[in-house]
Design brief:
This protein is an all-alpha fold. The chain has 20 helices and 2 strands. It has 2 domains: 169 residues, no CATH class; 198 residues, no CATH class.
């Protein structure tokens, strides 16, 4: 056991901390968070266009073209926003001018998605590539262009202006050399050599993209997340830089499908895990708070009551570290099992068409059941499944919670017995 702990402490935790603190992965994670507001706005218009009320489709039909405009301006340009947000944050983390980093990255990204406009010799933007298709290309462009700019700046291979020139003007001239070099490089790759960058990037990421929308793949992801939390590492944050772009790509593809009247292609789109699995936080700990709300043990009872309001908004750190769950085998086991059970149940129900798949982006702090209803575009069956899911998690946690109470009670009795024995009148 000690050897295992030493191995985890010496090799596993440093690797995971690298994932959590690496500036490149951190910028991807921050970029995914930064683009949430426009997606929520776009989701509101999708919800209005697809409101689950009988006869609504006939009423809204004349206005559908107008309602699709904000959707196209948000989800339809999602790759542009991803490129901008990631390059800006990476430039900031690396101590460079974030605005010029973002401008360069977006310019290169847009340039490689120019396509011939008929036979006139002119070029126009491929709008299809600016949506979910170009997501991974946007990330790669952001992570490549910013280091190139910083490298050239550090090597003084840039145009420098006198100190008397305003900082904004100085930075614009410093960006000229990196921008020119990057335009030449990507122009040669994309247009002179005619290399389809999107196709290559998608081929590289295809195995991971495919795996995460399968039951074994999403179960493996769920297991890794809960294991990390169980040893005190924020599993969601650690894995987000890897999986968040994929889940967001799924969501965008689902939005594009619903907008064109096609079946939703992806089950594990953004909202699947945060809404249907992490009920009240990772591990569905809202169920544990309900169970221990009237616990016989005053410690468990107090922590549950204090944490319950926060858990209604998916913030479960109080109960997670208050019980605790971390490094506690009694609660670690149901913590992992409940996550795997809800992942399996939700995936199968969506795969069988018994509840709708996610296509509305809602804040992760949206209360359970309400979130279930909204993320599926108003599917009452999803809301009912949300209630059932809490019950399932409570059943899984129940025997472990009662065992923990007994352990705590027996421990208190032994301490009281020891106090009585140690009293002066009882010492021979």
């Amino acid at each position: 056991m000690n050897a295992g702990k030493v191995f985890v402490k010496r090799y596993i935790i440093p690797s995971l901390q690298f994932l959590d603190t690496n500036p490149y992965l951190s910028s991807v994670r921050s970029g995914m968070v930064a683009i949430v507001p426009p997606l929520i706005i776009g989701s509101l218009f999708i919800l209005i266009a697809n409101f689950p009320v009988p006869g609504w489709n006939a009423i809204i039909a004349p206005y559908l073209p107008l309602l699709k405009i904000p959707v196209s301006a948000t989800y339809g340009l999602i790759s542009v926003y991803v490129c901008l947000a990631i390059s800006y944050d990476l430039g900031r983390l690396k101590g460079d001018d974030p605005l010029s980093c973002a401008i360069i990255a977006v310019l290169i990204f847009l340039m490689i998605h120019l396509v011939p406009a008929g036979t006139s010799g002119d070029y126009t933007l491929s709008m299809e590539s600016l949506g979910s298709i170009g997501m991974f290309t946007a990330i790669i462009i952001a992570l490549v262009t910013v280091p190139v700019k910083i490298f050239l700046t550090n090597k003084k291979l840039v145009i420098r202006m006198p100190e008397s020139v305003p900082p904004a003007v100085q930075e614009s001239f410093r960006s000229l050399t990196p921008l020119f070099l990057l335009i030449i490089i990507f122009w040669l790759i994309r247009f002179v050599l005619d290399i389809a960058i999107d196709d290559i990037v998608q081929a590289i990421f295809h195995p991971l993209v495919f795996a995460l929308d399968t039951l074994p793949g999403i179960l493996f992801y769920a297991f890794i997340v809960t294991i990390l939390w169980s040893i005190g590492i924020n599993g969601d944050n650690t894995m987000d830089s890897i999986v968040a772009p994929i889940f967001l790509m799924y969501l965008t593809a689902n939005v594009e499908a619903i907008s064109s009247g096609q079946p939703l292609p992806y089950i594990t789109a953004s909202g699947f895990f945060s809404t249907f699995v992490n009920i009240g936080g990772t591990g569905a700990t809202l169920a544990l708070a309900f169970l221990m709300f009237r616990s016989k043990d005053p410690g468990y009872r107090e922590v549950s009551r204090l944490s319950l309001p926060a858990q209604c908004f998916s913030i479960n750190e109080p109960i997670f570290f208050g019980f605790p769950i971390v490094m506690n085998p009694v609660f670690m086991v149901p913590f992992i099992i409940s996550t795997l059970a809800l992942t399996t149940g939700t995936f199968l129900l969506m795969d069988l068409g018994m509840i709708s798949r996610p296509f509305i982006d809602v804040p992760w702090t949206t209360p359970p059941v309400i979130a279930h209803y909204l993320v599926t575009g108003g599917d009452i069956r999803a809301a009912i499944w949300g209630l059932v899911s809490i019950g399932i998690a409570m059943i899984i946690y129940y025997p472990f919670a009662r065992h923990a109470e007994k352990q705590r009670t027996n421990s208190d009795k032994e301490m009281d017995r020891a106090d009585i024995i140690c009293q002066p009148d009882n010492i021979l």
